[in-house]
Design brief:
This protein is α+β, with helices and mostly antiparallel strands. The structure holds coenzyme A.
Length: 166
């Protein structure tokens, strides 16, 4: 476990470097399981529209949870494929990606960031996809009370679509 106090809250521009570092460390080419990488300008745009939740420990980003409106998120091809499979209600938003630093996993950081998101965005439907072979993520999100609504195929992989009401 990393040392230092854990703080969970909404990201600001000062967190962008740490978010990008954690995102880069979790790409497939470094053995990670994130399904792609968003450029800085795109993350900054998402942050202006919907809350981006971060977990900070000792001045570092220990985790992030991004969200986006359907209109903005849909131009990422895999998100477009998810929304074609399950569009959700008119007010629904897209949850993810979520990422917790490897040394911080299994301690409830993901559910803690989700609780903070729900506090800030109550009673709205959230939609997300998880690659079928990402069992840690499926397990984490089922434990958070999300349920599978359908699935889709993209780029040779199967993805589960999960939804919840915040
Ligand atoms: C999925 C993820 C966000 C979960 O975050 P978390 O804070 O570890 O979540 P939790 O503490 O609730 O643990 C969830 C499950 O992860 C697994 N887990 C536990 N310790 C772990 C560790 N050290 N490393 C990996 N997975 C671990 C367990 O199955 C655990 O469930 P359990 O407590 O019932 O055994 C995190 O594993 C992660 O960032 N993974 C890499 C990026 C990713 O896959 N993002 C999701 C894309 S859809």
């Amino acid at each position: 476990m990393a040392s230092g106090d854990l703080q969970i809250g909404q990201a600001s521009d000062a967190d962008l470097d740490g978010i990008l570092e954690l995102q880069a460390a979790n790409q497939a080419d470094r053995g990670g399981s994130l399904s792609g990488s968003l450029p800085r300008a795109r993350i900054a745009e998402l942050m202006r529209q919907m809350p981006l939740i971060v977990a900070r420990r000792g001045g570092r980003i220990a985790g992030f949870l991004m969200t986006g409106t359907k209109a903005v998120a849909a131009d990422v091809p895999v998100v477009g494929a998810m929304l074609a499979a399950y569009p959700g209600g008119p007010d629904a938003y897209v949850y993810g990606p979520i990422c917790v630093a490897a040394e911080e996993r299994g301690q409830g950081l993901a559910p803690a960031m989700f609780a903070e998101l729900r506090r800030r965005v109550p009673e709205r439907e959230g939609i997300l996809f998880i690659r079928r072979d990402n069992t840690a993520s499926l397990r984490a999100h089922e434990k958070m009370g999300m349920h599978e609504v359908t699935h889709f195929h993209f780029d040779g992989s199967e993805f589960a679509v999960l939804a919840y009401i915040g």
